[in-house]
Design goal:
The structure holds three protein chains of three kinds. Chain B is built from nine helices and no strands. Chain B is mainly α. In chain B, helix 2 runs antiparallel to helix 4, helix 6 runs antiparallel to helix 7 and helix 6 runs parallel beside helix 9. Helices cover 59% and strands 7% of the residues of chain C. The N and C termini of chain C lie far apart (41 Å). The chains are: A alpha/beta, B mainly alpha, C mainly alpha.
Chain lengths: 294, 237, 123
């Protein structure tokens, strides 16, 4: 399967934060949800793909082209949607088209006009007055108008109302109907990813915690619940984000240890949100232990 | 269209809505004032700085992410920026010159109320020598502003906006001190050699100095631009 | 074709879709040789991932409910004996279910219901 995006061994350190050996890939024709807490490194990874951040080491290729040396060729065919608009607020959509058109070989003015219409965006109103959802749709319109084959969305749904979020999913589902296209979709609202994404990459503390198909993820982990006295200490060691309270405990468990689970305990499916929460808890727990040692 | 032209076009569309009415009104006021021979040279200079400031503000604030996604070289973005600054200020200089020319040749001032009319009349009756001096001062002012803005642009691209402003304040202070010192010395007839260079007595000498000032400005803008391209092209957006 | 996905169901989405498509084929609501929406169309319509719909079609093709024609898409398999048999069994079970339910509602014991069935078959 041909990969539209390939990141290998990406390292990038800032003061107090670092991406460590980030490696994952996204095949052509699929949507990947890129999830993790705020500050886990999603935006830095995206900035690296766009050659906006200078990476310390590693290799990123998009459409098989190098993200640094071929950045211009990549951006011809790459659509980007940020959480806020990157254009001058006082312009209207018509003027913005005039601005952007010369930069793209494949700009399609008809597509731009048609999309504005179908998205219900006025072309004579200042874009600064657009609602958040409208701004998001304008950025998607731009991506579609220059025939982008790969769309990167950085937190597109933060601050969007449920209706606009649903519209976005509709748009992406339609976009991906063409099997030559892919979408990388960063978000911390995982319910958006839950349904529509084919692949999921979970970033935690600058590292890839999981990458693979969404089905693999949901088959790999379960939530374990029960009374604390019913869990063996060996199994407890294998739990992720173990959380005990007055009447029992809950934790995330890899399905490879399922046969060690005694009958008194119950397991249930874990969704991405729950997985993220347990991963974050595990981290705090570890830090807590380290502090105790000191 | 090459990348630099695309960027200039892009920036022009961005600023046009904000500045076109502003520039048009301002140029009209300048020319009307000139028709009545009112002293507007200084007004021109001040206003031009006021126009260039918001334009520069737009260039710096909103576009970093845009440059991250546009299929365009960083160097083209930077070059376009410097070309815009230089051309805007040359346009300002030309406008100032045009105003002087109109002041000199218009006789509409006779329609003004008496008190103002005398004042305007004095200006039109100024000896040729002093008049060329005005051109020279305007050219010097625009050269100074262009160089300062190009420098500030360079520093804000390479380092940060804050660093650029800090350095700018220091430079302007030092420059003001130097100018005052030289003026005092010349006034006291201590630096006659320098005076002959800075304030040529002949008209031709003054025009030559104006040409040199503009050439120096262009060279400085080019130099700052080249340094910025070299140092800032790889910088993170 | 009618597909309704319950997000809160314990069944995974792909299984829900498979069951519904199978049921509609067995009930004859989707005619044999009828073309199904493409994998990507179905994903778009249901707003679910392409991998999920791919899995649905692969599973259904493996079980013989649909066939994949390269370059054309997926079609409902022509009803073969196996499939028909399954459909019949399905209908029979439904009939039994109804009969047993009615019998119990009438206050018959399980033995009495079986006896009634035997009687019915001997006639």
């Amino acid at each position: 399967m041909e990969n539209i995006l390939e990141i290998k061994g990406l390292n990038k350190a800032y003061d107090g934060f670092a991406l460590k050996d980030v490696t994952f890939s996204l095949p052509k024709g699929y949507i990947m949800g890129f999830v993790g807490e705020n500050g886990s490194g999603k935006t830095t990874t995206i900035r690296s793909i766009l050659n906006m951040a200078n990476i310390d080491s590693g290799k990123i290729s998009v459409f098989g082209l190098d993200s640094i040396t071929d950045t211009i060729a990549i951006k011809e065919k790459l659509g980007v949607v940020f959480d806020s608009l990157y254009l001058a607020d006082h312009l209207n959509a018509k003027q913005i088209e005039k601005q952007l058109k010369p930069f793209y070989k494949d700009w399609d003015s008809k597509e731009f006009a048609d999309r504005l219409k179908s998205f219900g965006l006025p072309d004579n109103k200042r874009v600064g007055e657009f609602s958040k959802g409208m701004k998001m749709k304008l950025m998607i319109t731009i991506a579609l108008s220059h025939k982008a084959d790969f769309m990167i969305l950085d937190e597109p749904t933060s601050g969007l109302d449920p209706v606009a979020r649903d519209e976005l999913l509709d748009i992406l589902a339609e976009y991906i109907e063409d099997e030559n296209r892919s979408v990388l979709f960063s978000t911390h609202i995982t319910s958006d990813v839950e349904r529509i994404a084919d692949y999921v990459t979970i970033l935690h503390d600058g590292q890839v915690w999981f990458t693979g198909t969404k089905d693999e993820l949901s088959e790999k982990y379960v939530i374990l619940r029960g009374a604390e006295e019913d869990i063996s200490s060996a199994l407890r060691e294998k739990c992720i984000g173990f959380h005990n309270y007055r009447n029992g405990f809950d934790a995330l468990l890899s399905t490879e240890y399922l046969d060690e689970v005694s009958d008194e305990l119950v397991t249930e499916k874990a969704n991405i949100d729950e997985i993220l929460v347990y991963v974050a808890k595990e981290d705090r727990y570890e830090r807590h232990n380290e502090n105790d040692k000191v | 269209m090459n990348d630099i032209m695309k960027m200039i076009r892009f920036d022009l569309i961005s600023v046009s809505r904000l500045t076109v009415p502003y520039v048009a009104i301002f140029a009209a006021v300048c020319i009307i004032a000139a028709l009545f021979s009112l002293p507007i040279g200084i007004f021109c200079v001040v206003s031009f700085v006021m126009i260039i400031a918001p334009v520069q503000g737009i260039n710096n604030s909103s576009c970093k992410r845009l440059y991250g996604m546009l299929p365009v070289n960083r160097s083209a973005v930077i070059k376009a920026l410097f070309i815009e600054i230089t051309f805007t200020l040359f346009a300002g200089e030309l406008l100032a010159f045009l105003c002087f020319l109109i002041v000199r040749n218009s006789s509409l001032y006779k329609m003004l109320p008496e008190k103002v009319m005398h004042f305007a009349e004095d200006l039109t009756k100024m000896p040729e020598k002093e008049y060329t001096m005005l051109y020279m001062l305007a050219a010097a002012a625009f050269a100074f502003i262009t160089i300062i803005l190009c420098y500030a642009q360079m520093r804000s691209e390479i380092k940060s906006m804050e660093a650029a402003i800090r350095e700018l304040i220091i430079i302007i202070a030092v420059f003001a001190a130097a100018v005052s010192f030289i003026s005092v010395m010349i006034y006291n007839e201590k630096l006659d050699a320098l005076k002959n260079i800075l304030l040529p007595t002949t008209s031709a000498g003054k025009w030559l100095l104006i040409a040199i000032l503009n050439a120096v400005t262009l060279a400085a803008a080019y130099l700052f631009c080249a340094v910025t391209v070299k140092k800032a092209s790889d910088k993170e957006l | 074709m009618k597909i309704v996905i319950k997000n809160k169901s314990e069944l995974p989405i792909y299984e829900q879709i498979e069951q519904q498509i199978k049921a509609q084929i067995l009930e004859g609501k989707v005619a044999e040789d009828e073309q199904l929406p493409s994998i990507r169309q179905l994903a778009r319509d249901l707003k679910i991932s392409v991998i999920t719909t791919t899995r649905v079609y692969n599973d259904l093709a493996e079980e013989g409910f649909i066939i994949s024609v390269t370059g054309k898409g997926y079609f409902v398999a022509p009803s073969n004996n196996e499939l028909l048999r399954e459909r019949m069994l399905c209908e029979m079970e439904e009939g039994f279910e109804k009969a047993v339910l009615n019998g119990r509602n009438a206050g018959l014991s399980d033995d009495e219901i079986i006896a009634a069935l035997k009687n019915f078959m001997e006639e």
